[in-house]
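Appendix C reproduces, verbatim, an entry submitted by the partner laboratory led by Prof. M.T., so that reviewers can inspect both the input and the predicted structure.
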Amino acid sequence: MSINKIVLAYSGGLDTSVILKWLANEYDCSVVAYSADIGQKEDWDAVREKGMATGAEKVVISDLREEFVRDYIFPAFRANAIYEGSYLLGTSLARPLISKEQVRIAAEEGADAVSHGATGKGNDQVRFELSYLALNPKLTIVAPWRIWDLNSRAKLVAFAKEHNIPVPVTKKNPYSSDENLLHISFEGGILEDPWNEPDEDMFKLTVSPEKAPDTPTYIEIDFEQGNPVAINGERLGPVDIMTKLNTLGGANGIGRLDMVENRYVGMKSRGVYETPGGTILRAAHRDLETITMDREVLSVRDSLVPRYSQLIYNGFWFSPEMKLMQKTMDEAQATVNGTVRLKLYKGNCIPVGRKSDNSLYSESFATFEEDEVYNQADATGFIRLNALRLKIQAYQRNK
């Protein structure tokens, strides 16, 4: 295979450092190492220095934080996206954005190939490559984990030592993790046995609920058309919204998740996640919808959430069906404006108040006290009409 230049999605960790050197050697071509800043805590100067030392022609670091929150996290949360009832899609949402920027850099640098560090067992290979193919199918895709013989951690470490690449992974910290403004994930190590409880010192974004404050924290979040725009009355940009919610959630032990999920490639996988800000945001948004969305619109939208979430998880962000579903989700958000008050307490995020100028809640109709707007006798005909098919079936059974 003849390749002129490759843009590698590069993190600076063991896998992509080895891949960087391997690509340069295997294809005898220049490699551009590209890193996406999507909110992970990273020493970017060290990443750049390591990339150049490992053989990159150039290291490109793109600050994608604003775009990530505005164009990926917020749209998904307008749809209340959640995979298999638990996972808030922190990794899944980041991959199409990383891929989009990688394709852009390939065009800018005159590269004819792209590469990633995802293994042949996981979801990320699918997410990256579906995005590449949707955005520029002319690019050659190099997936080292599917073609090389460095098919174990021991072989990777040996290759790294042979080529003087620092090895960051130790037995003390064996987890594979992914961090961004929405979450951090952990896989591998003792987590491969789903019976093992995660070590407390593994968590980075949240205190344990047991160590959270003994008094609750109350906050208010303002929304406009389904997007959060202010916390406690202070208007903030998308990145600051997520940063502040992460801090508030983390301090109160909110957002931990331990689950076994179904990977798109067919196997089950155990993952542990911390999503403090996202957990608060989804609870608040969902609560505001209860007073601002029509019952049948809410029902139709909710019926689409599993399919929408599955599209994200499986890597179809740039598909035509995803574009259609996003338009539908956003149309349903036109009236989702208002404020939600929440109580954060020892791992719990509890909505305790909500208000909106678009509220469909009417105290005069819902009250248990005397009213002049609702004739309770109307319910008799309503119930009888809804029971008609049930009565007919009963008569049939009793013949």
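The chain has twelve helices and 14 strands. Additional entries are available on request from the coordinating office.
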